[in-house]
């Protein structure tokens, strides 16, 4: 059975506002992440600006990642969309490209009821043979995934887990309490709650901050797995300022800027998102220095 576990960076996409793909620095970032011990790569997620990319850009970014990874770690592909038909097209594309698993966010803008959401996920799952993670991010989509619905969806054979970005640890804990005994895997999607999710019985995290400080995020997981809770907690505390720094600019520019500051220029955030102000950039640089990360710009 496929196991979604460990630290999986939600990788920044190397696509600028004109659709140019910065392939060389992207490959460099992917190797930096793998060399620092991450357990998978999540491509075309929220931090990867999936909502702003064309289908062709998503395919190209995913294909580069799969090619560069060379099966060293699993590659998860984000394939969420507003409509079922578009999500199915993306899911089939990702499976054909060689993704090991899919992550499917709820629709957004529209607000399907729970039966409609069930059918959305059911059709996507039936369209492919690879594992699927549900993706709950209600602060972005305004659509929660209730415990009742997730329990229904977990009965579908290739729906194997969920990335929970709700920020509600009670909700996360309920997913785990009710479903983990059946092998359903729950991953933190809020970087400040990685250790809390692990303590409750979660299997890992899909973390935006792991683009920048992969070793530190991996330390949370690995310290916990070897029973060193003090070190895991210390790593979680050290990581917190970087996650809280998301407020220095409009999502997702802060992590894209941080990646550039440490030497991987993947281009600006896609408009209308703009860069961060110079004084905010200096705050971000200080956070990186405090994490013992070398800034090159």
Strand content: 5-15%
CATH topology: TIM Barrel
Q: Portion of residues in helices?
A: 40-55%
Strands side by side in the biggest sheet: 1-8-7-6-5-4-3-2
- Using the CA coordinates, give the radius of gyration: 18 Å
From the helix content, strand content and strand pairing, which structural class follows? alpha/beta
Kindly give the count of domains: 1
Number of helices, counting only DSSP H or I runs of 4 residues or more: 12
Could you name the CATH class? Alpha Beta
Report how far apart the termini are. 44 Å
Structure, explained:
- The protein is of the alpha/beta class and 297 residues long.
- The chain has one domain: Aldolase class I (TIM Barrel, Alpha-Beta Barrel).
- The chain is 45% helix and 12% strand.
- The chain has 12 helices and 8 strands.
- The protein has an 8-stranded parallel β-sheet.
- Strand 2, helix 2 and strand 3 form a beta-alpha-beta unit.
- Helix 2 packs parallel to helix 3.
- The longest helix has 16 residues.
- The radius of gyration is 18 Å and the shape is globular.
- The mean pLDDT is 97.
